[in-house]
């Protein structure tokens, strides 16, 4: 997908976050508690983040994966709905596993890079 599409998606997501037009799935709430990721961490990561993957055919509706960093420079991935929904849905949030990601942006291929 073209990079400008990723840029327009993150811009729209940021607008939703600024206007508090987002909600968390139960899974995202559970994971944020377990992983000690606060709402401030989430918003900071989205504001400085980038869309790294887009899933137009996700089973519950189009979604994307954002990589961002907290104030403490902790990397986090945020899987969320497309911003075309009335409320942006945060599906899950987690610290990316370095064994699975190159620079937290590119998935490693199983059995090698």
Q: Counting H and I runs of at least 4 residues, what is the number of helices?
A: 3
The helix-strand sequence is HEHHEEEEEE
Distance between the termini: 22 Å
Structural class: alpha+beta
Helix-strand blueprint:
Blueprint: H1 3-18, E1 22-24, H2 26-34, H3 39-48, E2 50-55, E3 63-69, E4 75-81, E5 88-94, E6 101-102, E7 106-107
Parallel strand pairs: 1-5
Antiparallel strand pairs: 2-3, 3-4, 4-5, 6-7
Report on the structure:
It is a single chain. The chain has one domain (3-107). The protein is 31% helix and 30% strand. The protein has three helices and seven strands. It has helices at 3-18, 26-34, 39-48, and strands spanning 22-24, 50-55, 63-69, 75-81, 88-94, 101-102, 106-107. The strands form two sheets. The protein has a five-stranded mixed β-sheet with strand order 1-5-4-3-2. Strands 6-7 form a two-stranded antiparallel ribbon. β2 (50-55) and β3 (63-69) form a beta hairpin. The longest helix is centred in the first third of the chain and has 16 residues, at 3-18.
């Amino acid at each position: 997908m073209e990079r400008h599409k990723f840029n327009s998606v993150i811009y729209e997501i940021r607008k939703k976050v600024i206007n508090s037009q987002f909600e968390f799935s139960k899974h995202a709430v559970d994971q944020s508690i377990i992983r000690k990721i606060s709402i401030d961490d989430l918003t900071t990561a989205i504001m400085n983040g980038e869309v790294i993957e887009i899933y137009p055919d996700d089973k519950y509706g189009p979604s994307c994966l954002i990589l961002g960093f907290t104030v403490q420079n902790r990397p986090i991935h945020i899987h969320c709905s497309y911003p075309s929904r009335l409320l942006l849905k945060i599906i899950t949030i987690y610290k990316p596993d370095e064994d699975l990601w190159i620079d937290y942006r590119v998935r490693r291929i199983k059995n090698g890079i």
